Amino acid sequence: MDAAAPTTRISLDDALARVAALLDHDPALALARAEAIAAQLPGLPAAELLACRALRRVGRASDAARRLSSLARSRAVVPAIWWELAQAAGETGDRAAAIEALERLTRQQPEVADGWFLLARHLRDAGRADAAWRADLSGVHAASHDPELLDAALAMNEGRLDDAAQAVAARSEEDPVALRLRGEIAWRQGDMATALDRVARAVALAPGFDLAREFLIRLLLQANRPAEALDHAETLGRSPIANPGYALLKASVLVRLGEQEAAGEIYERLLAQAPDQPQVWQNLGHVLKTTGQQARAIGAYREAVSRQPTLGEAWWSLANLKTVRLDAADIAAMREALAALEASSDDRREDVFHLHFALGKAHEDIGDDAAAFRHYDAGNRLRRTMIVHDAQGFSADAAAAAATFTAPFLANAGEGGCPAADPIFIVGMPRAGSTLIEQILSSHSRVEGTMELPELMMIAARLQSRVDEGEFPDFAAMAASLTLADRRRLGEEYLDRTRIYRKSDKPRFVDKMPNNWQHVGLIRLILPNAGIVDARRHPLGCCFSAWKQHFARGQTFSYDLAEVGRYYRDYVTLMADFDAAAPGAVHRVIYERMVADTEGEVARLLAALDLPFEAACLSFWQNDRAVRTASSEQVRRPIFAGGVDHWRRFEPWLGPLVEALGPVLPAYPDAP
C-alpha cells in the first residue's frame, strides 16, 4: 500500500492539472470532470475549488459563490478560495461578500497586488472612497516587490530601454503598475502619445495610484494640456496620504494656466506650515514678481538664499528683477557660494551658471564691465554644454519656410483658414521690446494679454513631423497639401487650445511667443485675419541683451554670441521675404522709434490692428496684469531711453556677434 500511494497521488495531481487546463477554453468539460473527481473523492478541496471555478466560467456564479462560501468555512487558510469567492460574489452583485473575501485574502497574502486592486474597485463601488484609495496604495506597495517589475525598472534606469520594455511586454493590460512602468519606458523612448495612453489607463484602473497620477500630470504639462493636468492635480490633492509635493505640483499647473494668485496662496500656506523651504520661497518670489509685487518678491528671494546660499536660480531671479542692484555683500556671498559649488563633487551646474549670470548683472550694475562680461561668458559657456542647438539646421528650416510661403504660393492658396481676428501675434527676437508692446496692447479695452503661448509652435511641429516621417518630401509639399477644411480646422484648433488662457470677454488677445516669427506664413494660412506685430530692436542691443539673459526655457540659440547673431540674421531674412510675399501683413515696431516717439508709434500700432486709439495705452505702466517675462518690472515704469545704447559699454567683446550678423548690422532697421 505504501508503494501504491505515490502512484495514486501522481495520477490525481495529473487529473487535476488536466481539468485546470480546460478552464479557459472548455469550462463545461472542466466542470464535468471536476465533478466526477469530487464524486469519487468526496470532500477533496482541490476538486471542489476547480468545480467552483468552472461554474463561474459557465455563467453559474451564484452556484459557485454558494459552494465557495461553504468551502471557505472549512478551508479558510487557502487564499485561492477567497480569491475565487471574491470573483463569484462580484459577478452576482454581492459586493459586501466580495469585499469580505478580498479583505481575508489581503490579510493572508498582502504581497499579492491583484487582491488589493480588486478590493479597491469594490470599495470604490461601495462608496468607500478613502478605503479604496488606501487599497490601491497597498497594491502599489505590494507590486514594488515584484521581481519582474524590479528588473524592468532597473533596466530602464540604466538606459536599457529595449530590455525594460521586453521585460514587461507580456504583462496584463489590466496591471496598473506595469502599465505605469511601460508608460515611462515609452516616454523615455520619445513616444509621448503611448506614454500618455498607458499612464492614463493605469490611473483609470487604480485611481488611488498616486505616483502614476503624479507622473500623468507631468506628462500632460509636457504635452501642453494644462487644463487636464489641473483636474488630476485637484484629485491628487485629496489623497489620504499627505504629501506637500502634491500641492507644489498643483501650484506649478496653476502657474502654467496663468492663475498666479492661486499658486501664490499654495506657496504661502506651505511656508506658514514649514518656513525652511528655500525652493518654495523661490517659487513664491516668481509669482510675486509676475503679479507686480516687487518688494515682496525681493523678500521671498532673500529668504530663499538666506536658507540656501548656493541656490543659484534664486540669486539670478533677484538680479533679474532689473530694478534691483546687488551690493558688495551680495557679490561676496555669491562668490563664496560659487566657490563651494565648484569644490563640490555633486552635479550642481544649474546653480553654477545661474550664479555666473547673477554675478554678471551685479558687476554690470556697479560699472565693472570686464568682470560682468567674464561672468556672463562663463555662464553662457556652461549653459551651452547643457542644451542642443543646431544652428545650421535651424537656418535651413528658416530658409525652407521662406521658400514655401512665397507670393505665388499665397496667391494660389487664396482665401481660407479660420476667419476669426481674435489673436494678435507679437513675434521677433526676445529682448526686442515685445513685452512692452504686449503691455501697451493689453491696456486697451478690447485686448487681453495672456502670455507666451506654445500652441502655434506645437501645431507647426506636428505638421513638420509629417515631413520628418516621410509622408511628404519637404515642407512646401506638406503646406500645399492642406485643404481649405484643413486650414480652417487648424485655425480653430489654435483658438480652442488657447481659450483656457483667456480670462475675460475681450474680443482680442495677445500671443507673445516671439519664436512664432518662424511661422508667420502658417499664421497667414490658417488665421488670415490675425494681427501680426514684429518687435525689432538694434541687432547688437537685442542680441547682447538676449545673450546675457538666462531664459527659464527655450531660446537655445542665445548662449553663444555667434549663434545668437546667426539666429537674428535668419529672423530678419525670413521676415523680409515674407514682407515681399504678403505686403502689409506684418506691422513692424522698431524699439528705438517707440522710445523716441511713443505716442506716434502707439497710434500707428493700434491703427494697423484696427483698434481705436485709447489714451490708456500710453499709460501702460499702470496696468497691473501679470507679466511673466524678463521685462516684467521694466514695463511697470514709463519708457526709459537709457537702455537703448547700453550695449556700447560691451562693444570691445562683441566681435563674434558683429561677424555673425554680417550685412544685417549696417542695414538696420531695414533688411539687407
From TrEMBL:
TPR repeats: 278-311
Domain of life of the organism encoding this protein: Bacteria
UniProt-listed InterPro entries: P-loop_NTPase, TPR-like_helical_dom_sf, TPR_rpt, TPST-like
Record-linked SUPFAM superfamilies: P-loop containing nucleoside triphosphate hydrolases, TPR-like
GO molecular function, one term: protein-tyrosine sulfotransferase activity
SMART domains: TPR (SM00028)
Keywords carried by this UniProt record: TPR repeat, Transferase
Gene3D superfamilies recorded: P-loop containing nucleotide triphosphate hydrolases (3.40.50.300), Tetratricopeptide repeat domain (1.25.40.10)
Pfam short name (any one): Sulfotransfer_3
Name of this protein: Uncharacterized protein
Source organism: Sphingomonas spermidinifaciens
